[in-house]
Design a protein that fits this description.
alpha+beta, 4 strands
Amino acid sequence: MRGASNESLAKAQEALASAAVTEGLGAELFSVARLLDSTGALRRALTDPARSRDQRSALVQQLFGGKISAQAQEILTAAVVGRWVSGRDLGNALDQLSVEAEVAYADGRRKLDDVEDELFRLDRIVAAERGLSDKLSDRNIPVSARQELLAGLLRGKADEVTVRLAERAVDGRGRSFAASLRSYQVAAAARRSASIATVRVATDLSEAERTRLATALGRQYGRDIQLNVIVDPKVIGGVRVDIGDEVIDATIAARLDEAQRRIAG
């Protein structure tokens, strides 16, 4: 988000940080985000700069009072009294806040590591199972049916937060299922002030190798690093690491490509 929208999101995040995060808070915030997606008049009313902060706050009370929890209403109010570059930025912010609420709920139950790991494993399973991936992305299948498919796969095998986030990824507000899952992993890592490094190797790393790599990357980037290791047969020796937009490619294939470019040049 840009400028004023980013500042308004930060204020709403402060309200979330001070709230008592309950199990249903994330779902409430996401439901408001979806309501804004489908109701342009409401979206414009809550972000109209011609309305004063008090007027927008009163509108939240009028429309949502008694219909959502006090915590959700407080966070929504903190959001709408801010300034937004675009009306859709408010919905995007509430979507992000809903994920952060789920992550905070998992953290409060000491389940954050489990949720991170389960989201990553689900991401890899869906990527590997073409039939499952096609079904989850098929817009001709109702969202509820796709969500039930996922819930059936995960129920009893994954944390409740993982199940809720997986179901939400199906209804990704314009993002693909995979992109939504990865954004949730980033939110979980951010909760621990860490960054995610996607590591591709030809053969799996031992725990000692993972620890050494995470420590080395942590020193380089000045923050904790969460490793997501992908065993990829296309990697010919060495390791490729993606952190955000940065790539560290120390594979043999990359070195050969570089040598070929130098010879050709």
